[in-house]
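Weekly structure sync, notes
Attendees: PL, DS, HV (note-taker this week)

Item 1: Deoxyribokinase
DS walked through the input record. Source organism listed as Asanoa hainanensis. Sequence as pasted into the shared doc:
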Amino acid sequence: MTGLERARIVVIGSTMMDMISYLPRIPDTGETLLGDRFALGFGGKGANQAVMAGRLGAEVWMVACVGTDVFGDMTLDNFRAAGIDTTYVTRTSAASSGVAPIWVEAGGDNRIVVVPGANALLTEGQATSAVSSIPRVDVVVGQFEVPQAVTAAGFRAAKERGALTVLNPAPAADISPDLLSVTDWLMPNEVEFESLAGSTPTDTAITDLAARYGVKVVATLGEAGAAVADGSGRVVRITPPATTAIDTTGAGDAFVGAFSYGLAAGLSPTAAARLGCACASSSVARAGTQSSFPQAADLDAALTWARA
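Item 1 (cont.): predicted structure, written out as tokens:
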């Protein structure tokens, strides 16, 4: 479908069952509101990014930990249906599978609570073994919904093999020096950027953050698109395709998965970021998380737009 080289991506990260409530507005403290509808879906930043990369045509391995509960069963079935390799997804009876209660208000804005559960029990050894064992790895992706030490271990193994590493520092938190030392691309949204840089993502702030951390940076900016600092000394801003937002849940993950695929498939960083914008814009036009990600003709259109 893509006409690009088959990309090979490892995602070290979380799985969640999304429990999504749609309501007119967020309730005040102590207030009860009637919602419009409810949906149960598959989520977790790691899982979302893996599914998006897989839809674009990548071979994707997921490194994760789920419970021995029904949510764990459902998560594994969903990965298999999406074509994601689950060889390195472990199971534990010591904790429940991760869950994410989500509120989506009119206009598409969302608020999310993440309960990691089994995600917190993923180990450094599991991440290292997975990345070291897979034949040829182009890009390894991580986030903050599993322990940073686990992601750092996987990234070290990736660097030893010559693979690129992409870190989505979400939810917002300080980044450990060990993890920064093996990160090639840092991909914060506006909230995460301000947490790290202490300012909004102006061109100067983006280049300063990249220089301070010794990384390349893509700042995702919601409906304003993205800003890319690829090490050339300049910042490229990308305006996304126009769309009407229904539900922004998972849009950032669609961007990260698509960007990571673009890098792995040989696109320039700017073209990869354009692909991320196109996939994220397509996602917000539909309700849900993974269920909102573009497929088939939408993906062909996104790739064409990215490479224009």
